Amino acid sequence: MYYRLQNFYQNHRRYVLSRSDAQLLGQDVNIQNSNCEPFTTYPNGTPVAPCGAIANSMFNDSIQLFYYLNSSTAIEVPLLKNGNSWWSDKNVKFRNPTSYNLSSAFAGTTRPPYWQKPAYLLDEEDERNNGYINDDFIIWMRVSAFPTFRNLYRRLSHTNQFADGLPAGNYTFHITYNFPVTKFKGQKQVVLSTITWSGGSNLFLGIAYTVSGAVIVLAGFIITAIHLKLRKKKTYFQR
Amino acid sequence: PGRVDGLFRQGEEEVDQEVPGLRGATDRECVQKEDGCEEPNNRIKTSKYNILTFLPVNLFEQFQRVANAYFLFLLILQLIPEISSLSWFTTIVPLMVVFTITAVKDVTDDCFRHKSDNQVNNRQAEVLIDALRDDRIYLTSLFFSQADLLLLSSSEPHGLCYIETAELDGETNLKVRQALPVTSELGADIRRLAEFDGGVVCEPPNNKLDKFTGVLFWKNNRYSLNNEQMLLRGCVLRNTGWCFGMVIFAGPDTKLMQNSGRTKFKRTSIDRLMNTLVLWIFGFLVCMGIILAIGNSIWEQQVGAHFRIYLYWSEVVNSSVFSGFLTFWSYIIILNSVVPISLYVSVEVIRLGHSYFINWDRKMYYPKKDIPAEVRTTTLNEELGQVEYIFSDKTGTITQNIMTFNKCSINGKTYGKSNNYSRTKTVPVDFSFNPLADRKFQFYDHSLIESIKLGDSMVHEFFRLLSLCHTVMSEEKNAGELIYQVQSPDEGALVTAARNFGFIFKSRTPETITVEEMGKLVTYQLLAILDFNNIRKRMSVIVQTPDGQIKLYCKGADTVLFERLHPSNEELMYLTSDHLEEFAGEGLRTLALAYKSLTEEHFKEWFKILQEENTSLDSRNEHLAAAYEEIEKDMMLLGATAVEDKLQEGVTETIASLSLANIKIWVLTGDKQETAMNIGYSCHMLTDTMNEIFIVTGHTVMEVCQEVAMLVCIHKKNKEEYFVLQAHALEADLENEFVEVACMCQTVICCRVTPCQKAQVVELVKKHRKAVTLAIGDGANDISMIKSAHIGIGISGEEGMQAVLASDYSFAQFRYLKRLLFVHGRWSYFRMCKFLCYFFYKNFSFTLVHFWFGFFCGFSAQTVYDQWFITLFNIVYASLPVLAMGLFDQDVNDENSMDYAKLYEPGQLNLLFNKHTFFICIAHGVYTSFALFFIPYGAFYNTAGEDGKHIADYQSFAVTVATSLVIVVSVQIALDTSYWTAINRFFVLGSIAVYFAILFAMHSDGIFVIFPNHFPFVGNARNSLSQISVWLVILLTTVVSVMPVITFRFLKEDLNPTITDQLQKSRRKQKPLQNYIPRVYRRNSRRSAYAFSHQEGFGELITSGKNINAVKN
Description:
The complex is a heterodimer of chains A (239) and B (1113).
Chain A: E1 2-6, H1 13-17, H2 21-24, H3 53-56, E2 62-68, E3 74-76, E4 79-80, H4 87-93, H5 102-105, H6 135-141, E5 149-152, E6 155-156, E7 170-176, E8 187-191, H7 204-231
Chain B: H1 27-35, H2 54-64, H3 66-78, H4 89-133, E1 148-154, E2 160-164, H5 166-169, E3 174-178, H6 181-184, H7 190-195, E4 199-202, E5 213-218, E6 221-226, E7 230-231, E8 236-238, E9 243-249, H8 255-258, H9 269-307, H10 320-335, H11 342-360, E10 374-375, E11 387-392, E12 399-410, E13 413-415, H12 446-454, H13 457-468, E14 473-476, E15 482-485, H14 489-500, E16 503-508, E17 512-517, E18 520-530, E19 538-544, E20 550-556, H15 558-562, H16 570-585, E21 589-598, H17 600-615, H18 620-631, E22 636-647, H19 651-660, E23 664-668, H20 673-682, E24 692-696, H21 701-715, E25 721-726, H22 727-731, H23 735-744, E26 747-751, H24 755-768, E27 772-777, H25 783-788, E28 791-795, H26 802-806, E29 809-811, H27 816-854, H28 867-877, H29 880-888, H30 894-899, H31 905-908, H32 915-940, H33 954-976, H34 982-1002, H35 1005-1010, H36 1020-1025, H37 1028-1055, H38 1059-1069, H39 1098-1104
Helix pairs in contact in B: 2-4, 4-28, 9-10, 11-27, 13-14, 17-18, 21-23, 27-29, 27-32, 27-33, 29-34, 32-33, 32-37, 33-34, 33-37
């Protein structure tokens, strides 16, 4: 399950810069020196953790998927929130500050202004998915290249009746609406998708290969024809 | 050594009188000039730095360059946080690299300068400082005069002094200078010379070599001075033991230096074009910046304003216009790599490499004198591939200035074989029977020596004439060691020939000539010398044999002599003139010889007339000429001589191939018209197939005007012609006409030109024709020409290094010019053009991706690539392969370049790199950048990776585009490289390898943990490059970028093949063509090859006895 945003300029230069990789690595750094402005500190001087515009604007809708076994009973589709990010991000790039527990590690800092809860409460159930190493957070922090993009939100847990994917039937989404998009004339979508050997469902490469292949073959024929025709005319070097 | 041949004393008294209009140039001034400082300091300093001053001076110099200052400006821009779109290190790292390379180059250059300074200073110490400290100048025979001197006295009687002025004006004959009688009395008396306190008032320093006016004041007397008393700097003392002189002009005031012109900073046309293009690109950059800035303003207003909730602007920058303004500067920073820092330094490196190739070329090394070719200006190499006009000096450059007696025609029979063209080795005649023979003399026809031994009277008379009719002085130092002091090399050759054939001129007095004829001494009474001059074109002697016969021996131009023959000679005359034609066709300098027996009464009668004329005051010369005319008639023809003015090795072939390559060769010489034209024929620059010969000889402006105007009319009809003109034509104010006529001719020969006029001619062509000019010369008289031409070449290895020091290239032989132009010049040009094309292409495809990305990132000046990639791309990933191509590439090998002169034409027409090709390169770059951006964009638009995770994130996109770019430019360079060396392969493959190595290193965990803020791409390479779709994107991008180029090149080769393509094709299919150089032996028009570098006046010296000292001593 992906969420897709349109017209969200994650690739804007000032947006891209507005983060502190050192802070996200759990290091105790002075984020005043980073590019996080203006999401660095509150007026009272408490530093923001995590700082910067990227973190502040994190996608925070929560989406649940329900499958109607019959017209009245719906069961929640089991979705995995772990393992959605790159291994290198999860294990190298992001690390929580070290302390005896997570909330004390974030002591003395405060949540970004748009967040509803502090970083150490992102996933209270799973210690390995909380704080900076929360998958949703990591995925959001990997900024997209274009203003229209999709980010992996949840993966289907292939258990019980979902062992072979989502069976045909009726589904509903329960979406907690936290992330406003109308203000910047954007759109948000939920995408359910399977993957192929070449990734997602993008036809561009296929078409591009076919077209350029055809053009090259055509050009090859033309060139060969011209070459054969001209070969009869001897164009040897003459002094 | 050790022998003090002469002493020079500088005057000590000032002169208070001044002649109005003339500047007082007292010798005191000269003293001040030469040792005005407390101690004589004549050190030359051309080096710029020492160890302490190097860093500040060099940095200051480097920042003075516009390009470097521009990058400094960018660096400052990058430090402004609102603007900075790139970290400071993206600019500073390349800038540091560039600075380091430039500094290293400057250091090596300066080391060379230090070295040569030391050399020059030490060399001068031997000659000058010594001379100054002791007030002495050792002026001995063969010594170069170092200043303009007033001749005071000499070892020869009457203060005579012989000089050779080849260095000055290119003339090969000796000239006489004579001291004033009052000063020549001083002789070698050092005490009296030391007391000499005369003062000189003379004209201010000027560049006229043949004029001097001044007055000497000494002992309350005035003596007027003229050129006869002057020894100019650069002339060489010949046949004179020593002389004393007083310095009139020294240093820069000497006539030679006045003639040498100013040193100008030379730049190649590609340099100029490059600068223009860089300006254009800069304009283009500003345009892009403006477009993107406007885009940014609009975006901020339409989209960004709503997006502010996520992306605050600080209060200062709230208006969209101001944001656009800032964006403009941000984009200037990002896009500045279209004008890459490394361009200039790469060009310098390539040129330096090419210079070393020339220095190392064994085929331009002259083993006889151990002189390699040397590049003295390293920045002109590619211009060598574009030369259209060559201006050449004659003496010493084209010719060796050695005359040899080569052939002769005696009584209708020719003797002598030319050894030049026949491949079979002929044995030279053995002159061992003759103890006084000159060892160096060689003759290849044995029948002549047999005729002499048989006692053929005509042959004897022929050589008797050669041994009698001349103005040579002899000196017998030891027994059997005969030394001739010759006034012209032609005469020397003739007298030496006679000497070897057994008619040895031994000695002379004013009244007698002693000759050893076949072993027995014969003394002739010298009755009269009918001297040579340019109008008469002949000289005669009248001698009385010991048995009382009076004979007139005459030698001169065939045309002149044949008119004065006895009618009975008609048959012989036709025969001889056939022979003369044959000789002339081979470019030999011919003289016809004739004699006449006189009765005693006849002679006495005539001699009386002569003496009357001799004393007549008005128009004495005409009267004398008439008297000479009277006796020189009804002569009997003996035969003709042919003297070869030896060309330098391979000159003919070189000139022939150069003209095949459409290079126009102009010979500029100070020598006479006859001599110059003769050389023109002998090196086949002039041939008889040329149907028009224009000779402009008018002396006054009016005459020249008429002649030139007439030429302009005639000219339009004919194609092949040549053009000979004398210096007077240059003085006339006819620039346009002159250039128009001259440039349409195949060959132009300018004779009697002063050094300054040589430069004027070059300037004229430079001004009116936009062509690359090259001047080649060996002597000091060529300096101005060498300096003012685009490329100056000095022939090294001869006496005097002035020409070499002023030149850009130097080598030992004229024939190396062909290799320099056809191989090195052509390659240099070819490589430089390819390099520039590729370089601009590369930078456009690299940079414009940001432009396209701008439309998708809100014109926010976000870069596509990682900052480190931007930093390293131009200096690491993409610099070495193109550098290797620029250094080593060649389309055809050196042998073919030498053989096929036509291959030189693209350079002259400037086909390989001009504005047109530049735009093609740019278009190619733009197209590539388009493919580089939009194919990944299409592939990554709204998609996920094969594991469902990120693939369309910014960092993966950056890695994909960067990898595609590196692969595309590498494939492109592989396609462009036509000559693969191991270094090319290593650099191309190495660059890709290094790219991946650095990529993985920078995306590794370790470096991220140490510098988390600087290497945020951790793990990216691993994740992205393991995706199949990323590789598919890279492959597609590469194919799409490269395919059109391949198609285009293929079609071009088929439809519109260049000369090189044709050559390569035919080489694949046929055996290489034999090298063919046209040689012209046959001639169809009658032409006299008379040329004689002789001067009037020696006959008079001999008969007056002024220069005879051998007898007196």
